[in-house]
Prior knowledge:
Blueprint: E1 6-7, E2 12-13, H1 15-51, H2 57-89, H3 91-107, H4 115-143, H5 149-173, H6 182-187, H7 192-201, H8 206-210, H9 212-217, H10 222-226, H11 232-251, H12 256-264, H13 271-297, H14 299-320, H15 328-339, H16 342-353, H17 359-368, H18 370-387, H19 392-399, H20 406-409
Antiparallel strand pairs: 1-2
Amino acid sequence: MTQISIDSSSLTLSRKARLVVLFAAFCGLLFDGIELGLMPIASISVTKSLLGDRFTDALAGDWFARFTASLMLGAAVGGIVFGALGDRVGRTRAMGVSILFYSVFSGAGWLVGSLEQMLVLRFFVGLGVGGMWPNGVALVSECWPNVSRPMVAGIVGAGLNTGILLLSQIARIWHITPDSWRWLFGWSAVPGLLGVVALCFVPESPRWLSTRADAARRAVTPLRELFRPPLLRLTILGIVLGSIPMIGAWAASKWMIPWADTIGGAAQPGYKAVTQGYWALGAVLGSFFGAQLAGVLGRRLSYFLISLGSTALTSGLFLFTAPLQSAFLPMAFAQGFSATLFFGWLPLYLPELFPTNVRATGSGIAYNVGRFATAGGVFAAGTLVIWFGGDFAKVGAVMGLIYSLGMIAIWWAPETSNKDLPD
């Protein structure tokens, strides 16, 4: 194994080691993003294949909601469990295990014979998806100096949506249909190799290493420390600020993909991939510039403006455009940009709330507990699909209003601009 030099006085790695950390975390989040984008683009094809003659649009919407909720529940649990694991055994170890989880269980989707089997597998995929984010973000935020934090947070935030963009381009070339979808799950096992690399070669956070002696003497676990004063208020605020964009993304935004497939899929089999591509291109830019916006305008004002723009563009997409209309794809791009500014903002802000000894656990809870609420929101959206007779546009427009809550919640949060990470 290559030895990486550590400057113990400044708690920083060499530049080469920091680049290794950034690259590994970016790739882990990129493949995380592929998993997040996989079922929105493949769900209807999987459902048609496994239901056969029993398939209806309403059932397709119901199963899409179930797959999404299962993934979100798994991610919520994984974010808490693997986030705590990262604070106990190290960021890189927990990151490597998370990558192995989402790769192996996603690859197993190639073998499923029923929708129920796929539903179970998506939960286990979610465990790894949820665990990757807090450990990758904590690792990167601790290994890079403060002057680089907004830029690095933007790069990390863009990782997820780069994965979704990459998946959309693959699906444009090799169409995902009821007769041809298993190959996608088979290939999704390949990132397991990155998990092995993370376990063996990626350097650990010097800040985390420096806390080990103190941690051995601590009687309080990270979870207990986060849910009692003085961190309780920050933990609750982090959960609220992480939940709003998560619920909005999965209970509202993601419905544009099955909507595009239902309306445009018969005439253009690749239309759903084109739609996801436009959205993901906007999302890559949004998740990068979210951190930069927070750096320029401050954490609170930027979150308020992102919430305002996301509310308007999400409901506007579903109310005033439709698949195959000329305005639909540009609106998908704009909504992707606005709604994912949150996901550049969060990897910058959440690590700033918590001290080093609970940073991965705290970030994981703040980012992933919202997925419990997201699962409930997705189930509610699935119920609305049946209630609205399979009208995905009405569901997206109604659920898009969740973003407006961010305009209120952010004013209870502390402003952390121009402050160092708490030790």
